[in-house]
């Protein structure tokens, strides 16, 4: 009864916006910040219920990632540090769209009963709340806290401004019972990075100023955090641009989404950067792409996207596994077969898929959205997933980790310092450097840099692993995007009938042509993707298919 009146009184302070229907998409709730107070308050309630139900720490992140600065959003991190379990998404939707306090409280009461959640507050639970640098974040964070505190026994811990992946990492670490502050996160990243450099065969040939990395921080939280992290690193010189302190606007003409979609030089970069290794983070630092400025005269960049980061990681992991499995000092052939899986979406450049398959790797496709890729990758001993836009990570199974640790113990007895021993130590360092909760631009950048140094590769050499097929992405505004339903990891349109046949007929006109359409999960549009052997051909294929949708 106390619980009921607590909810009734707090929810009356957060009336929902009129005439908007929100849905918990692939990236949580996202909208113009001015209409989000009630949604964020309600997601606070949901997170508290999730914490009580799982008896674990839950995370709440207030961000709209690469969207414009006036937008904001909120998403929930589950106990593992991953995305909210998909079976709670419908509840998130109904909760966000309840029209008055009575209906809201009724929905919560029914849900609590169905899920067998005991709300006696006997054991308190914690919800970690953080936000990116958006000005609207402060008051939204307050609304989230109010939601959390409306559930008896739930405690909100304000973590302040963090990157999205740091919050996910903290949730995961806290639930494992290990150290989980932001400094612990930075320390884990910098020490595993150092470890990888120390294991470079020729000895670590520290990079100097002439070989610096320049990072575009998207005028967001990532740049500001990288300024702290870079001071903890040896053997790598990083210059941060667009850290948000120079007055630029978040995600405006900067950041990973802009660089990847427009393929042009971001603000703050120019002729002085020709030939230099550059990288871009997105607004909440969970995406990473690299790029090179090929010439002074053009705004065009050579993009080194998520597919290429994936390929670099795959080459390195595969190499270390094969060194480790060579019968030399210790017979590692103990019957354990490490299963390595690569997960992509239909947006992966066709040339990357060909390259990975030609390396003998198993490549699997899922629909767009990190939750699908992550779930698939988790089915392997080592699962590497990336979206072309630069969101991705590497997952290691518990079984693999136990096997690796046993190997290291064994090798350090009989073959200390051998190549086999070093390969095992490198893999262990990767498990600590890469953020296994979610894609993370800061941990990603350090793994890329460590591997490039290990291989002795320049960014040009890396970029030439394979040559991207020309591609074009378009979006078409439609009245009802749900009218388009797809299958086979979004590569085939099922309804409306007839469209797929028309797409096939168009695609057949182009050598190496590939094209698909799908409804966006984050915007009110149908996205068109086309690939072909020349830029003109890719543009023309995309345009003619876009006309079919209109
Ligand atoms: P939608 O709007 O569903 O295409 C976009 C990205 C996804 C993912 C989500 C979440 C593209 C083509 N799509 O989804 O990869 O990152 O946003 O942020 O880049
Ligand atoms: Zn993001």
TrEMBL record:
Binding site for substrate: 387-389, 518-522, 527
InterPro entries associated with the record: A-D-PHexomutase_a/b/a-I, A-D-PHexomutase_a/b/a-I/II/III, A-D-PHexomutase_C, A-D-PHexomutase_C_sf, AMG1_II, AMG1_III, PAGM
CDD domains: PGM3
Residue intervals of the Phosphoacetylglucosamine mutase AMG1 domain: 180-289, 305-457
Residues reported in the UniProt entry to bind Mg(2+): 65, 282, 284, 286
Top EC group: isomerase
Molecular function terms, GO-annotated: metal ion binding; phosphoacetylglucosamine mutase activity
Location of the active site: 65
One BP annotation, GO: UDP-N-acetylglucosamine biosynthetic process
Needed cofactors: Mg(2+)
Domain Alpha-D-phosphohexomutase C-terminal residue range list: 487-547
Cofactor binding, per record: Binds 1 Mg(2+) ion per subunit.
Every Alpha-D-phosphohexomutase alpha/beta/alpha domain range: 53-87, 106-175
Keywords of the record: Isomerase, Magnesium, Metal-binding, Phosphoprotein
Pfam families linked to this entry: AMG1_II, AMG1_III, PGM_PMM_I, PGM_PMM_IV
Tagged with keyword NAD: no
Pathway: Nucleotide-sugar biosynthesis; UDP-N-acetyl-alpha-D-glucosamine biosynthesis; N-acetyl-alpha-D-glucosamine 1-phosphate from alpha-D-glucosamine 6-phosphate (route I): step 2/2
EC number: 5.4.2.3
Protein family: Belongs to the phosphohexose mutase family.
Stated role: Interconverts GlcNAc-6-P and GlcNAc-1-P.
Protein name per its UniProtKB record: Phosphoacetylglucosamine mutase
């Amino acid at each position: 009864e106390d619980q009921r009146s607590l909810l009734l009184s707090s929810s009356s302070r957060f009336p929902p916006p009129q005439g908007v229907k929100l849905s918990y998409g692939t990236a949580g709730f996202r909208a113009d910040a001015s209409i989000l107070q009630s949604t964020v308050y309600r997601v606070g309630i949901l997170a508290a219920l999730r914490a009580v139900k799982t008896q674990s720490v839950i995370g709440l992140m207030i961000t709209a990632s690469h969207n414009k600065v006036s937008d904001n959003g909120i998403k929930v991190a589950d106990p593992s540090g991953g995305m909210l379990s998909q079976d709670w998404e419908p509840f998130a939707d109904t909760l966000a769209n309840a029209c008055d306090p009575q209906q809201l409280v009724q929905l919560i009461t029914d849900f609590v009963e169905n899920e067998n959640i005991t709300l006696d507050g006997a054991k308190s639970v914690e919800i970690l709340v953080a936000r990116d640098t958006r000005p609207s974040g402060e008051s939204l964070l307050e609304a989230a806290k109010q939601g959390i505190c409306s559930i008896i026994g739930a405690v909100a811990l304000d973590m302040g401004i963090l990157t999205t992946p740091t919050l996910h990492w903290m949730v995961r670490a806290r639930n494992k019972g290990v150290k989980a502050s932001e400094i612990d996160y930075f320390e884990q990243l910098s020490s595993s990075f150092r470890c990888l450099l120390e294991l470079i065969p020729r000895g670590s040939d520290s990079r100097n100023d002439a070989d610096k990395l320049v990072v575009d921080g998207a005028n967001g939280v990532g740049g500001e955090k990288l300024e702290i992290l870079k001071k903890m690193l040896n053997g790598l010189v990083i210059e941060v641009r667009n850290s948000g302190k120079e007055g630029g606007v978040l995600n405006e003409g900067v950041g990973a989404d802009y660089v990847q979609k427009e393929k042009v030089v971001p603000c703050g970069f120019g002729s002085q950067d020709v030939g230099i290794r550059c990288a871009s983070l997105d607004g909440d630092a969970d995406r990473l792409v690299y790029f090179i400025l090929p010439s002074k005269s053009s705004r065009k960049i050579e993009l080194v996207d998520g597919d290429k980061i994936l390929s670099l990681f795959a080459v390195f992991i595969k190499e270390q596994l094969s060194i480790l499995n060579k019968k030399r000092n210790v017979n590692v052939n103990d019957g354990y077969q490490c299963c390595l899986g690569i997960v992509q979406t239909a947006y992966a450049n066709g040339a990357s898929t060909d390259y990975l398959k030609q390396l003998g790797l198993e490549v699997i496709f899922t629909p767009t959205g990190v939750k699908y890729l992550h779930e698939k990758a988790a089915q392997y001993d080592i699962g590497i997933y990336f979206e072309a836009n630069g969101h991705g990570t590497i997952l290691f199974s518990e079984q693999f980790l136990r096997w690796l640790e046993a190997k290291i113990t064994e090798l350090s007895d009989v073959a200390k310092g051998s190549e086999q021993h070093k390969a095992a130590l490198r893999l262990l360092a990767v498990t600590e450097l890469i953020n296994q909760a979610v894609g993370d631009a800061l941990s990603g950048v350090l793994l890329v840099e460590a591997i490039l140094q290990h291989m002795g590769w320049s960014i040009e050499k890396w970029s030439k692993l394979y040559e991207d097929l020309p591609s074009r992405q378009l979006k078409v505004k439609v009245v009802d995007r749900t009218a388009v339903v797809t299958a086979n990891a979004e590569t085939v349109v099922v309804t409306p009938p007839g469209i797929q046949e028309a797409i096939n007929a168009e695609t057949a006109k182009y050598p190496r042509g590939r094209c698909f359409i799908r409804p966006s999960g984050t915007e009110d549009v149908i996205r068109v993707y086309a690939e072909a052997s020349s830029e003109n051909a890719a543009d023309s294929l995309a345009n003619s298919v876009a006309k079919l949708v209109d």
